[in-house]
Amino acid sequence: MACSLEKVLLDARSLVERLRDHDNAAEILIEQTTLLNKRVEAMKQYQEEIEALNQVARHRPRSTLVMSIQQENRQIRELQQENKELRTSLEEHQSALEMIMSKYREQVFRLLMSRKRDDPTIVTQLKEQHTNEMQAHIDKINEMATVMRKAIEVDEGRVCEDEERIKQLEVRPLLHPKYMHTHTHTHTHTHTHTEVMNLLSTLFFCLRSWKTEACGSCWGSVERPFWC
User: Which parts form a coiled-coil structure per UniProt (predicted)?
Assistant: First the structure.
């Protein structure tokens, strides 16, 4: 009786393991089927876009297509130049920010050393408080700079993609599936540039407000650093 019970338990355990394996295999098959369906839908959409582009291209002369491509090339070059200027400006602002923070730390250290003889406990508390505040502001500024840098990189990547697409369109204008959306991409680049400029303005507004609060509320009647 005991042997038959153990055998039943072993059989049940093996069945559970097989069911688990079957479930895993079924999940894998479902994922593969979903991926295949997405690919089929993408191919259908691609074919529809090619047909629509061919219908439009039949009614437009080749010279018009070439002129529009040249105009978009000019706009892409302008966007690339703006991206370079933005990158240079961002690097300059980061260098200036590092210098300002270095001067600030130097002034704080001197002030703490001058007050060290009065009350070491207060000095330690002030040092910890200002260190935490400085680190918080530095993290915010670095986060803003990272967002701007990513926006510039994304914008440049889109510009490179558009250049590649336009080159393909110059060779085979009737087979390019994304020609009708080129103007939309150009507008997206301009919008990204505007967002970067807004973030840059926010960065320096935050820095200016932070310097005013740090100098006015933390030190009281103590003489402010020269750069405040």
Answer: 36-103
- 182-217 and 62-115 helices, crossing angle to 10°: 10
Dihedral of alpha carbons 36, 37, 39, 43, sign: positive
Backbone CA torsion sign across 77, 150, 161, 65: negative
Q: Where are the alpha helices (DSSP H) in the chain?
A: 2-58, 62-115, 120-171, 182-217
Q: Measure the CA–CA gap between 178 and 82, rounded to whole angstroms.
A: 24
DSSP for residue 224:
P
pLDDT single digits (tens) 137-154: 788 888 887 887 787 777
Torsion sign (Cα): 77, 79, 80, 84:
positive
54: its two tokens? 């061919």
Cβ atoms 138, 101 nearer than 8 A: yes
- 138 conformational bin, left if phi > 0, alpha if psi -120 to 50, beta if neither: alpha
Task: Report whether 159 contacts 82 (CB < 8 A).
Answer: no
pLDDT at position 36: 92
Most distant CA pair in the chain, distance: 94
Rg (CA), the chain: 32
Element (H, E) at 174: none
Threshold 0.85, pTM exceeds: no
Of 209, 207, 166, 208, nearest in space to 186 by CA:
166
Helix axes 120-171, 182-217, angle to 10 degrees: 170
